[in-house]
Amino acid sequence: MSRNALDPVTFVVVGASGDLARKKLLPALFALYSQGFLPRDFRVFGFARTPFGDAEFRARVAENLTCRYVPGEACADRIREFLERCHYTAGQYDSADAFLNLYQAMREKEGRQERNRVFYLSIPPQVFLGVAHAIGGAGLVQCGNRRVWSRAVLEKPFGRDRASSDRLTAEMARVFEERETYRIDHYLGKEVIQNLMVLRFANLVFEPIWNRAHVRRVTIEWKEDIGVEGRGGYFDAYGIIRDVIQNHLLQILALTAMERPASVTAGHVGDEKVKVLRAVPPLTPDDVALGQYTAGTRRGLPHPGYTDDPTVPRDSRTPTFAAAALRVDNERWRGVPFVIMAGKGLDGGGTTVTIHFRDVAGNVFCDRPLCLPANRLSIRIQPDEAIMLHVVNKQPGLQVALVESDLNLRYRAAFDALIPDAYECLLLDVLEGDKSLFIRCDELEAAWDIFTPLLHAIEARGIAPEPYAFGSAGPAGMRRVLSRA
Ligand SMILES: NC(=O)c1ccc[n+]([C@@H]2O[C@H](COP(=O)([O-])OP(=O)(O)OC[C@H]3O[C@@H](n4cnc5c(N)ncnc54)[C@H](OP(=O)(O)O)[C@@H]3O)[C@@H](O)[C@H]2O)c1
Predict the structure, then answer these.
(1) Cα radius of gyration rounded to whole Å, the chain
(2) What is the pLDDT of residues 345-356, one digit of tens each?
(3) Burial class of residue 277, CB neighbours in 10 A (0-12, 13-18, 19+)
(4) Do 379 and 460 belong to one domain?
(5) Do residues 150 and 259 both lie within one domain?
(6) 21 C-alpha vs ligand 1 centroid, how far in Å?
(7) C-alpha angle with apex 249: 207 to 418, nearest 5 degrees?
(8) Which residues lie closer than 8 Å to 324 by C-beta, 6 or more apart?
(9) 445: CATH
C-alpha cells in the first residue's frame, strides 16, 4: 500500500529551534517525504521559545535539506512542497496556554479530520516534564481514542540514575501511555547495528561459535578524536558513562549477547534484551578506568584540555573517558569479559564491536602456543560501515608461511545503495508504530541498575578521573582494565 494512503499525521517538534531538529529530524522527515514514505496529509509544527515566523522557520529548515534521494530538478519541487507543510509557533515550554496556541494553529491548517500526532521532545532534560504536562494540560493528547494515536518521542538522557529515571517514566506515563512512548537511542537506527541480529540469526556459521567455548573476549569501543568544542554544558552535567556507555554501548552489548528472540517483533526482542541486561552484575569503581583529557595535539596542532574549554568548570571532575569489563553471568557468556570503552579526545574516531575468538587448540602450523593470531570478527558501526573477519591464511608461494588476512565486507563497496541516516529509519518506525528499535521501560531499568551503584560511588567518593593527553590512546588505567579482562 502506498504510504500516501495512510492516515493524516501531524508531527510536532518541541525544541524546533535547536541543533537536533535542524540538522537531523527535519532532514530525516524530508528524506522520508521525498521517497514517498509519509502520508499525503502530513504536517510539521515546530515549537520553541525563539520567535520565528513560518517563513523564517522554513528558511532555517531548508538550509539542511539534501537532494540525495531525489537528484535532479524534481528535488526543488519536493523541497517546496515539504516546506509548505512546515509551520512554527513560539511559546514557553511549561505553559498550557502556549500549547493551546499551538493547538489552535494546528486546527487551522489541519481541518476537521481527526489526525494522528507525534510529539518529538527535542529539548534539554530539565524541561521534559514541564512540556509533557503542558501538552497534556492543553488536551493535545488523544487518550482512549482508538481511531487515532498520540505518540511521544523522547531523547536521552532518561534521568541520571535508576531513581530519577523511574520518576521520569512515571510522570511521563501520566500524559502518554507507555505503548505510545518511544525512547530513542539513535544508535539502534544505524544500519550496522540493525544488521547485528541478521548477522547472528540469519547465518548458520556464527551462532554455533557465539559463546564462551569459542569467544575469549568482546570489545565495544567508541572513540572520538574531538573534544567538547564549546558544547561542554550538557556533557559536563552527565559525563561519558551517562552520555554514551549506559545507553549506546549497552544497547550494542545487549544485541551482541542476547539469545535468539522468538521473533523479531518488538516484544520478543525487548524480552531478550532485558534478560541479558539483568544477567550483568552492577559495576563498582574497581571495575572501571576513568579519564579526562588534558591539553595535547590534534593533527599536529595544539588542542586545549577539557577544563580549558570555556563551557566547562575549571575544577570539573567529569570523565571524558571510561572503560570497564562487564560480565554477563549466564550459561552462554560466563567468564567472557565484555570490555566497553568510550572516550573523547583520543587518537582516532569510530565505533567498533570486536569478537575475539579463542586460539586454535593443537595448531599444527606452529609448535609454540599463541604463535598465530586468533580469529577476530570486527563490526565497524561508524565511520565507513564494515564487517571484517580476520583469518589466518597461507601466504601465496612455495614455502608454507602464514599471514593474517581480512575477509572484508565494506558496505560502500559491496552495496549499491544509500545508507539511510539513523533518524530516517527511527522516525519511520515511530510513524508505523514499530517499537523494536526503541527502549522499553524495563530495559531502561535494567540498564540503570548496572551503572547506578558505580555512578553514586564515583560521586560520593569524589573519584577523580586520570588525566590523559588529547590525541593519545587514553589513560594508563585502561591497561589495568584490559589486563583483568
Ligand atoms: N544534538 C544531538 O545530536 C543529540 C544527541 C542525543 C541527544 N540529544 C538530546 O536531544 C535534545 C535536543 O538536542 P539539541 O542538540 O537540539 O539541543 P539544544 O539545541 O541545546 O536545545 C534544543 C532547544 O531547546 C531550547 N533550550 C535550550 N536550552 C534550554 C534551557 N536551558 N531551558 C529551556 N529551553 C532550552 C532551545 O530552544 P528555545 O530557546 O528556542 O526555546 C533550543 O533550541 C536534548 O535533550 C539533547 O540532550 C541531542
Answers:
(1) 24
(2) 999 999 999 999
(3) buried
(4) yes
(5) no
(6) 9
(7) 75
(8) 245, 283, 287, 288, 289, 339, 340, 341, 481
(9) 3.30.360.10
The model's pTM is 0.94
The reply to whether 253 and 135 lie within a common domain is no
Assign residue 15 the CATH number of its domain: 3.40.50.720
475 lines ligand 1 (CB under 6 A): no
C-alpha 47 to ligand 1 mean position (Å): 12
Q: Calculate mean pLDDT across residues 141-159.
A: 87
- Count of domains forming the chain: 2
Residue with CA at minimum distance from ligand 1 atom 3: 20
How far does residue 94's CA lie from ligand 1's centre (Å)?
15
| Residue range 3-45, pLDDT digits in tens | 444 789 999 999 999 999 999 999 999 999 999 999 989 999 9
Do 129 and 278 fall into the same domain? no
311 lines ligand 1 (CB under 6 A): no
| Whether residue 462 sits in one domain with residue 371 | yes
User: What is the spatial distance between Cα 127 and Cα 305, in angstroms, rounded to a whole number?
Assistant: 30
Atom of ligand 1 nearest to the CA of 156: 7
Q: Which is the closest atom of ligand 1 to the Cα of 50? A: 40
Asked if 303 is an active-site residue, the reply is: no
Q: Is the pLDDT of residue 365 over 90?
A: no
The C-alpha cell 580549558 sits at 308
**Ligand 1 binding pocket mutation candidate from 92, 99, 122 (most atoms within 8 A of CB):** 122
Output the pLDDT for position 369.
60
* Residue carrying C-alpha cell 534521494: 69
The verdict on the CB of residue 101 being under 6 Å from ligand 1 is: no
> What domain range is 344 assigned to?
188-420+439-484
pLDDT of residue 377: 98
